[in-house]
Amino acid sequence: MPEANIDHGYEYPAGFLADILRSVKSIAMVGASNDKTKFSYGVLRVLHETGYEMLPINPNPKLKEIRGIPVYHSLQEIDRPVDMVEVFRPKEEFYGIAEQAIEIGAKVLWGQIGVFDDRAAELAESAGLKVVMNRCPKIELFRPFWKPRLDLKI
Question: CA quadruple 46, 2, 17, 119: dihedral positive or negative?
Fold first, then answer.
């Protein structure tokens, strides 16, 4: 069951984010790009190399794979369970993607940095999904290991 009363405007409890990142295995990335200069490409690469099953979503019919991973052109094309839908699209599209995430039975809806919509969060949470907005899973994945090295010279 999703966490009740999560305040999406402030910091999420560390345990909430850690539980999500520990429990999900498959991540559908809406807005995945094969352009190596795009942030979504770097996040997909790191999450894939970390061991997540990545399911890139890009509507371009000519795009068949990213980093050797088959591309789906919509969430509805995915032929297996999806644990998390990660959104690299404008925040104005988040509500519609929340509807689709519910439709495919995802467990988590994650809006990348800059992607947030309280209505979408409320919709997804009322359908039983956990929701994270305006955060990057790549950053959150490694946050527990960040330790400042104040002894290093600049």
Answer: positive
Contacts for 58 with CB less than 8 Å, ≥ 6 apart: 31, 32, 33, 34, 66, 71, 72, 73
What number does CATH give the domain 24-145? 3.40.50.720
Residue 139 and residue 84: Cα distance in Å, rounded?
16
Residue with tokens 């997540």: 52
Q: Would you say how long the chain is, in residues? A: 154
Task: Name the residue type at position 26.
Answer: S
This model's pTM is above 0.85:
yes
Tell me the pLDDT tens digit for each residue of 102-151.
Answer: 999 999 999 999 999 999 999 999 999 999 999 999 999 887 655 555 55
